[in-house]
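Sample pair:
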Amino acid sequence: MLLKDMKKFFPGKGPREAADFEKLPAHVAIIMDGNGRWAKKHKLSVSKGHRQGTETLREIIRHTDDLGIGSLSLYAFSTENWKRSPEEVAALMQLILDFFRSEIDELDAKNVRIRIMGDKGGLPEKQRDTLIEAERRTEKNTGLNLNIAVNYGSRAEIVLAAKEIALLVKNGELQLNAITEQTVSDHLYTRGQPDVDLMIRTSGEMRLSNFMLYQNAYAEFTFPAVLWPDFTVEAYDQALATFAHRQRRFGARL
């Protein structure tokens, strides 16, 4: 389903107007799964599978921005991914450099703000400096929040938030009984952004893999069977249309 066909799901409204009426999610998160299996299917190296996945990534970011969705969070490299072969890790690290070198001008021109989720200090120097520069260059942009999880684990994120809050209490800057759910949210990588509304994991796998556990508390989930390099704009639109038909209760009865 193409963007132009979404009018049937948002009667009388274009996608941007529909977003104002909560028909589109404010925050989409995607686990981009299936690059390796795509490569195997096509008898290619895993690195070529990841590179093909980057082409999909470009299209999905552009489409998200065109729709007027406020935040897009992408799982690019987890803390567990270091366990993969040295060759695959090296290929992924190189893709980080290649992606930002080729896309940063367009992203900045489109007013996209890049935020890196994860431990940048644990990355090789070139990758760390590239990510820090991308954040610095776009920090004043007010358009799409593009959250890219690199060297990321959600449990580690929550532990980091707990440590920051504990330090505030220790220093007398925060009272223990003043800690709320909002306090925790304010110390996550996604501070200032809404929780995830729609969580997409490609390739048919049905697990979170330690991705945004706190922010996904009331997210709607879709698990398209398509491998990430084959995830098209049409498939993305279908996931958004599915979300638009969900009745969200947030624990209440309607």
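The two ends are 30 Å apart (CA to CA).
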